[in-house]
Specification:
alpha/beta; Nucleotidyltransferase, domain 5; six-stranded mixed sheet; about 45% helix; globular
Length: about 240
């Protein structure tokens, strides 16, 4: 598999949060945030825009993202940023948490443009991290917040939802969920030689004998199921 492929981690904020309404009647996108990953590294080539939805934001949604109607008054409409957005995501794999929600809103905006633009999921391949999380942690809460807590990713700066912040957090989660322990060193708390070298030295000096725990049959079955899922969805990162 090509680890140099272009991955775009995408998140949106909207005027409403009813995820069960298809199409998303009367609700619109108000923010798009996306971060680029190539070779399992954040490149800094990100995309972010606030959008004037031409409608009032629901109080329930306002409590989540804190974006007000007044703040959006001078922001561009989706039609004004559509080409820029489509050019940014082309030739990439989109990674989205609960992809049907964000894709539903984006595709609705494209339909409103009436330019015969194909749905995003036919232009780009899409990986839904919620489906990955449910395979890894069946029966557990798999929201972005819950996963950040489970993977010990700091999110103290995230008092409200923000498309760019959420996309960055999701990017770190995606790398951890698909890359094993290598990502823990590259993207979490240990990220420089000064920290790594003392750790290696201490491990050699203590010569700790580690207890080997064999997996249960249930754990083996779950692991095989996850490997098959990654293979079927073309997200295997090893040969």
């Amino acid at each position: 598999m090509n680890n140099k492929k272009r991955i775009i981690i995408l998140d949106t904020e909207t005027t409403g949060i009813n995820q069960n309404a298809l199409p998303h009647i009367n609700h619109r996108i108000i923010e798009i945030g996306a971060v680029e990953i190539i070779g399992r590294r954040f490149t800094g080539n990100n995309f972010h825009v606030y959008i004037q939805p031409d409608r009032i934001i629901d109080p329930g949604a306002l409590k989540i993202h804190g974006i007000t109607n007044d703040f959006l008054l001078d922001k561009p409409f989706f039609k004004d940023i559509a080409d820029q957005f489509l050019n940014y995501i082309q030739n990439s794999q989109l990674v989205i948490h609960n992809a049907s929600f964000d894709l539903g809103f984006i595709n609705q905006e494209l339909e409103i443009l009436n330019k015969n633009i194909k749905p995003i999921n036919t232009l780009c391949s899409v990986v839904d991290t919620l489906k990955i999380a449910r395979t890894l942690f069946p029966g557990k809460k798999n929201t972005l917040d819950a996963l950040c807590t489970r993977y010990k990713i700091k999110k103290s700066h995230r008092n409200l939802h923000s498309a760019t912040v959420d996309a960055y957090l999701l990017g770190k989660l995606y790398l951890l969920m698909t890359g094993g322990q290598e990502s823990l060193f590259a993207y979490n708390t240990i990220n420089n030689k000064k920290t790594i070298q003392p750790l290696k030295k201490n491990i050699k000096e203590k010569k700790i004998s580690l207890k080997i725990l064999s997996p249960t049959q249930k754990e083996i079955d779950q692991h095989e199921k996850y490997l098959k899922y990654m293979k079927d969805h073309n997200i295997c990162l090893w040969y």
